[in-house]
Records
---
Amino acid sequence: MAKREKKGELSSEAYVRSNFMKIGRGANAVLTIVMILLAATIILPLLLVVIISFSSSLSIAHRGYTFFPEQWTLMGYQYLFKSGEQVARSYLITIFYTVTGTVMALAVMSMFAFVLSQKQLRGRMFLTFFMYLTMLIHGGLVARYLIYTQVYHIDNTIWVFLLPGLVGGYNVFILRTFINTTIPDSLFEAAKIDGANDFTVYLRIVMPLFKAGLATIGLFNVVSRWNDWFTGFMYVENPVLIPLQTMLIKIQKNVDFIMSNSEMSMSPDGLELIKNLPKQSMQMAIFVVSTLPILCAYPFFQKYFISGLTIGSVKG
Amino acid sequence: MKSLKKEFQQNYVLYLMALPSIALLIAFNYVPMFGQLLAFKAFDVTKGIIKSPWNGINNFKYLFTTTDAWIMTRNTVLYNIVFILLNRFLSIALAIALNELRSKRATKIFQTIFIMPHFLSIAIIAIIVFAFLGTSNGFVNVVRRYFGGKNINWYYNVKFWPGFLVFVNAWRGVGYAAVVYMASISGISMEFYEAAMLDGASKMQQIRYITIPHLKAITTILLIMAVGRIFNGDFGLFYTVPQDTGQLYPVTQVIDTYVYRALMTLNDIGRSSAATFYQSLVGFLLVMASNAFVRRVDPENSLF
C-alpha cells in the first residue's frame, strides 16, 4: 500500500487499472511510435528557434534557418546582454505585473469564492448570477477601450495590467467548487459557535486547507499574465511599462524591416553589417530567454494545473 | 424589509468580503457592458460616451452595407466550426490513446510535452511559424531550395492560410484539451471495465461502450461553451500569426481583428462598436440557444 502511494500523481484506482488491463504489446508499440512523432512536432519547432538563436549571422545568410547551422555562436546572447536594456526592463515589469496581479487576484477571488460557498447567505444566488452574467455577456473591445482611456484614464499606467480581469468568473467558480468539495460545512459551523467571525473563518480555516486550490488558480493566473501581450499592445505606449510579450510582438515587426533590408543589400558592406549585428539570432535569443522561465516552471506545477482542470470541468 | 436588515446584520462580514469583487465587476465588466450601447450612438470625442447623440441603427447599416461584415462573419464561424470539430476529435483520441499506454510513466512524459504549447504566448508561436515560413530564411523554403525547388511567398498567398491556421490552432490546443478529457477518463469507476472484461469485451469495445459514453457530460459542457464563443475569433492567432499581412485579410479577417483595425487604424468607432455589439449579441443568443437545446435533449448535461 505504501508503495502504491509513492506512485504520486496516479490515483490508486488508475494504478490498479493499469496493472490488470493493458493493451497488447504490439498495439502499445504502434501507439508509442505515434506519440513520439507527435511529440516531435511539438519539440522540433521549439528546438529550431533555440538553434537559430545560436546560429551566426553568416550562417543564416548562407543557409537560412536550419537545424544544422554552419557556425555556432553566442553572439545573439552576448549582444542581448550588452544592449538589452529594454529586454531587462520589460522582464522586470512583467515579473511585477505577474506577481502583483496574481496575489491581488487570489486575495480578491478567494474571498469572493468563500462568500459564494456560504449556504446560509441569502444574497448567494444573486451574487452567483451577478458573477455568471459577466461570463455570458462581454463588454466588447470598443466600449472597453474608450472607457479605460477616456473615463478611467488607466491607459499608460500599471493599473491597466492589474485591475481589469482581476475577478474571472471561471476562476471564482473553480475556487468555490474547491471549497465546497474539500471543506465540510460542519467545520465552519463549529468555528462560528466558538465565536469566530466569517473573516476569521476564511483566514484561519479556509486558507490553510485551500493551498491546492490557490496554487491551481495562481498558476492559471501566472501563465495568462506572463503571456498577456494584448493589454500592452492596446493600452501602453510608454516603453517603461511595456511587458515582455508585447515587446516580442513589436520586435517581430522590426525583424521584417531588418530582413527586407538585408536581402536587398547583399553587397560586401551589407554582409559586413549583418555579420556585426546578429539581429536575427538576437531576436530568437530574446524569445528563448522570455519563454524559458514558464517552460521550466511548468512541470513542477503540472499537478496543480491538472487538478484545476479536473475540478473546473465539474459542473459548477 | 426587517429580515433584510437582519440578514445584513448577521452576514455583513461576508458582504464586505464580496465588496472588492463586486466593485471590480461593476467597473470592468458591467460598465463596459452598458458601454456597448455606444453602437447606437454617433460618437463624438469632444462630447464623450454619454453625451454623444443617438443615431439609431445607422452604425449597423454602415457595417452591413460593406462586404467586410460578410467576410469576417464567414471566416469567424467557419474557422471556429473546424476548430471545434477537429480539436475535439483529436483531443479525445489523444486522451484515450495516452490513457491506454502500458507505461504510466510514458503517459506522464507525453502529457507534459503535449501540454507545453499551451504555455507559449502567441508571440512565440508567431515567430515559430515565421521561422518555418519566412520567405528567404524560413525552414520550409530552405528545404525546398535544398531539393532544387523555388521559394514560395507563404505570407502572400491566401490559399495556404486556412490550412496553416487550423494546424497552428490544433498544435496549440489539442494537448491541453486532451488533459481535460484524461482527467475525466480517470474518474470512470473501475467496476465498469471489470464487468466488461468478465463479459469478454475487447479493448476497442470497452473504449466504445464505456470510455466514450462517459466523456459525454464534459464534452457537452465544453461544446456549449465553444458554441457560445463561435462568434469570437482568437485575435492573437488571426492577427499575429499571419504577421498582420494585408494580402491575407480575405482569409484571416475575423470579427475581432476587424474591430481592432476599424478602431485603431481607421478610428471608425461607429462600425467597430456596431461589430462588437453584433458579436456579443449573437454570442449570447447562441449560448442560450445551445443550452436550451441540450436541456431538452439531455437535461443532465445542460450548463444551467
---
Amino acid sequence: MATAVEEQAGGASTVREHVLDNGLRVLIQEVHTAPLATVWAWYRVGSKDEGPGVTGVSHWVEHMNFRGSTNIPREKVKGIIEQYGGYWNGYTWIDQTTYTETATRDALDHMLFIESERMGSCLYDPADCESERTIIISELQGGENDPDTLLDQELTATAFRAHAYRHPTIGWLSDLQTMTRDDLYGHYRRFYVPNNATLVIVGDVDADAAMRDVVKRFGAIPAGELGRRTQTKEPEQLGQRRVTVSKSGTTAYLKIAHHAPAGDEAEFFPLLVLDAVLTGAKGVNLWASFKTPPPQRSARLYQALVNSGLASGITGSIVPTQEPFVYTISATATQGTSLDRLEEAAVAEIDRVARDGITPQELTKAKTQLRARLVFENDSITNIAHQLGYFATIARWQDFLAMAGRIETVTLEQVGHVAAKRLGSSHRTIGWFSPAEQ
Amino acid sequence: MTVHSPAAHGLAPSRQVLANGLTVLSKRTAVTPAVTIHASIRAGGAADPSDLSGVAHFASKTIDRGTTTRSADQIAEDLDSRGVPLTAAVTRQTLSLTCTCLVEDFEAVLTQLADIITRPAFPAAEVDSRRSEVITLIRQDEDSPAAVAVDGLMDMLYGTAHPYGRKLRGTIENAERIDTAALRAFHHAHVTPGNVSLAIVGDVASPRAVDAASAAFLAWAASPEPAIEIPSPPVPTGRRARVIPMMNKAQADIAYGFTAITRNDPAYYAYWLMNHIMGQYSMGGRLGDSIRERQGMAYYVFSSLDANVVPGPLMVRAGVSAANITKAVASIDAELTSLVNEGPTEQELIESKQYLIGSLPRTLETNAGIAAFLTTAEFFGLGLDYDVRVPDLLKAVTRDEVHEAARRAVDPSKATVVVAGPYDGELA
C-alpha cells in the first residue's frame, strides 16, 4: 500500500507525496487549467554513474527503453501516446535519466502503463541494441559538427580530473563502439528499480484516482539492490587550466568555467544572482530555461563583450546539480576579434566582480529577473512536473518550491563572498575553439 | 473535479482592428500572473529589396536598439529591470517581436514595445556594432552542414531571383552595405499599422488589452502597404543533385525536397496529413521508421511542410555518416515511391488524424503557444474559430486525397537533393 507522507503547497495547488512500499516516490499535483495531464518518470542515474569503458551507457539505455517491452511491441511504444495527441520524450544528463508524456487527461493510465513497462520489462533485443549503436554514434557526430558543443566537452573534461562529471553524457566514441548488450542490460536492471525512481503526475487529474492507478501499475514491481555508488569528489583545483581545440571552422569560441556549488548548497543562490548580473537571469529549468533568451542587454558581460563588438553573443550556464558542477560563461568572437582580446575583456569583468562584488541596484534587478523567470517557467503542466521531478532527483522536490524564497534572501555580502571565492583565477578553466584555416 | 473550459468551446479570442488598421487579438488566460505580447509584422525576408537580401534580418537585430525618444541602453535597462527578454525573429514572411512580462508590467512593456515598433531610429553606431554580429551569424551558417544543405536546397528549388531562394540572413557583402538609411527605408515601407497583428495573451481581460494597445499605437498614422509580389517557383523537370563538401565535419546533412502548395490551397489538409505520415508521426513517420528505427542510420530524419503565401518547400532532412549517404538517399526514394504508388494505409491516416487533432490542447496550453496560433491564423485569414474547425477539417480528408497529395508532391524523379558534409563523391 502507498503511504502519504507529505503535502505542501506548490504554487496555486498542493503537491502530494507518497512513497510506495517498493520505494517508488510519487508526486501528484492537480492543475485544472487545461484538459491535459503530464507524467514524468525520473531515475537517479546519469553519466556520473558510469566508469571507463562504458561511458554513455545511461544515455544508450534511455534510447533502448523506447525499443519495446514485454507488453508493448517496439513499433507501438511511441504511437500509444500519439493517438491522444500526446508529446513524449526523454533525456539523460549527468545526474538523471527521465521520460515524459503529456497528452489529454484521458490518456493518463496509458502513460502510467508505458512508464511501468519501462521500469520493469524492457526487452533489449540484440538487433535493436546494434541498430541503436549507430544511431547514437550519429547523434555524437552530429554534435561534433557544432564547434560550441565540441569545446564544451573539452572544457568540462579539463575542469574535472577525478569526478565522473568529466566525461560527456553521450560517451566517448570508442566506448560506444565496444559496449555490449550485457553492459546495457546490466545497467538497466541495476538502476531502473522503483526505489531509485520518482514518478510525477501533474494536470487535470483527480489525485486520489491517479494514485490508485499508480499503485495498480507500479505496486507489484519489486525494489532492487542499487549497490555502492561512486564516492569520488573532485579535488580542489590549484591553478588555472587551459584547453585549445584546433579544428577548421569559420568562428572562434571562448568558454570560461569555474567550479560551482551543488544545487542544494547555500552558495548556489548567490551564484544564481551573480550569473544574472553577469549574463542575465535564466531561471533553473533545464527543460525550459534555455529555450527563451535571458534579459541580458544590460548585463555586465553583454555590455563588455557584445555591445563592445568583441562577441556576437554570450551565455552563462549555472544549473542545479546533485554534486558540484561548473558555472560556464561562453562567448562567440566576432569576425576579426582575436581570442586573446576577447578573453582579456571577459576575464577583466570576472576579476572585477570577484574583487568588488555587485551593487545594490544590480541585486534588486537580478532578483526581479529571477522572480519573473520562475513565474514564466511555470506556464505549463509539463514544466511544473519537470521541476518537481528534477529537484527530487538531485536533492529534494521541496527545494524547488523554496527557491523563490531563497533567492529573495540573498544579500550583497553573500554575492560578493561567492564571487571572490568561486571566480578566482586558480579555480578557472579557459577553453578556446580556434578555427584553423580550411 | 475539473474547472477548465471544454476544448470544444474553443479559444474564442477577441479581435479588434484599430482606426489605423492595426489588428489586436486578445485572449485571457489565468495560468500564471503573466502576459505574452506577440507582434507579427508582414515584413519578413520576402520584403527585402531584391538586390539587398538580409535587410529584414538585419532589422530584427537593430529595431530595438534605440528609438527617436529612447536610447538602446534605456530600452535595455527598462526591459531587463522587469525581467523581460524581447525576442525578435524573422521568417520569409514575417518579422515578429515577442516578450512575456508580469501582469503588473503589462502596460509599461506594451508602451515600450510600441515605441520600438513605431519609432525605431536605427542609430548608426548601433547598426555598426550589430553588423559584426550579423556577419558572425552568416559565417557560423557557412560552417554548419545543416544550414549549408538547407540553404543549398532553397537556392536550387527557387533560384536567386526568388525571395525564397535567397538566404534570409543575406550575404556578408550585403551585411557590410546595409546602413541606417536602408533600415529606415525598409521600416518605413513595411512596418505599417495595417501590417501588424498584435496578440495579447495572459491574465488581462480583453477590454484592458485593447485599451492598452489603443493607447500605445493609436497615434501611429496609417500608411499604404506596398504589395509584395512573390512569383511562383520554377517547376523542376527532372531530378537534380548537388554535393557541397565540408571535409572538416563529422557527419553529413541531407536536404531533399520539392516545392509544395500554398497555405490556402484546398488540398492543404491532405498535404498536412501526407507530410505527417511520411516524416513526422512517431518520430519521423515512414522515413523515421525506415532510416532510424530499422536501419539505424541517423539520429534524426524527418520531413517538414511550409505551405505559405507561395508554394513553400516540402523538405526531407537527415543527418548521416558519409558512408551512409547513398543508402540514406536511396531509402528516402524508396519510402516516397511507396507512398506515391500505394498511398497511406487506413491505419496511418487514422493515427495521424488522432494525433493532429489530439495535440491541439497541448499547442494551446501556454500563452506563447496561443499567441503564435492566433497570429498565424490571422496571417492566413483562417478565422477566429479556426481552433474549433481544425478537427473537422482534418476528419474530412480521405485516404484518396492524401494519396493524391503524395502523387502531386513527392515524385522522387523530380526531387532536388543537396548533401553537405564530409563527402565529395557522386550523388544520384
